[in-house]
Amino acid sequence: MNKFIINGGKAAHDIIQKTLLRKRYELPEHEAKELIETFGIRTTRHRVAPSPADAIQAAASIGYPVVLKIVSPDIIHKTDVGGVKLGIKDDEGVRDAYDEIIRNVQERQPDALIEGILVQEMATPSTEVIVGGLQDPQFGPAVMFGLGGIFVEVFKDVSFRIAPLEIYEAFDMIHEIKGAKILKGFRGREAADIAALTQTLVQVSDIMVSLEGIKEIELNPLFVYPKGVKAVDARVILYHP
Ligand code: ADP
Ligand code: MG
Predict the structure, then answer these.
(1) What was the pLDDT predicted at 162?
(2) Which of 102, 118, 138, 209 has the most beta carbons within 10 angstroms of its beta carbon?
(3) Does the CB atom of residue 123 touch ligand 1 within 6 A?
(4) Could you read off the pLDDT of 219-229 as tens digits, one per residue?
(5) Could you give all domains of the chain from N- to C-terminal order, each with its CATH number?
(6) Relative to the CA of 121, which ligand 1 atom is closest?
(7) Global pTM?
């Protein structure tokens, strides 16, 4: 076992318990990110802001440009309700985006409970992949991998393995999808950091194997850079007792 599992075990367990005590079965994005960070997966710097003034303060401490997102237990696909604003450059932009997100959500999903706005670092755009953890009804914990966007949604170009994953299995999962070439660099694009991506698949496997109560995890997307990776959105779904 590596140090992340030992550290991650207790901290992650506490995050899960906190959610269950509120009778919720899905972690909000920022808590899902805190959980995966305890297992060594890098995510965005972020803070939940309950007001536009707080959001401006948060942006100043995170550093521009920032991203604003709706925080609501009732919203799964934030973009669909106009709940995500990218690349905000200054205080005025934060104020406008804050109000616009609240307006969008009130208009498109009026009964959604709004808990605040998540202010986060705008990560440099890069190749987007999806890494998932799930419970297979027959085999137990499993890991899923695919390229982001239409590759998963339209082409269903994904790979699966039963957890716990060995490093070589994670490596195979990455190479066996049809779109793997995209990660290897083409048309002037630099090759993605396959070693860091491999490690992320193993970390998701560690989470699924070592924590009780998790039904599903989704890093969607994980940005893969020529050096390193970063999860810019994360979901963790718990079992309903
Ligand atoms: P949704 O709930 O709609 O999946 P996401 O949080 O995934 O919302 O945001 C939608 C898209 O915006 C992502 O797929 C990604 O391309 C981009 N994005 C989200 N967060 C960031 C960020 N912090 N930095 C850069 N791009 C981001
Ligand atoms: Mg997403």
Answers:
(1) 98
(2) 118
(3) yes
(4) 999 999 999 99
(5) 1-44+123-241 (3.30.470.20), 45-122 (3.30.1490.20)
(6) 23
(7) 0.95
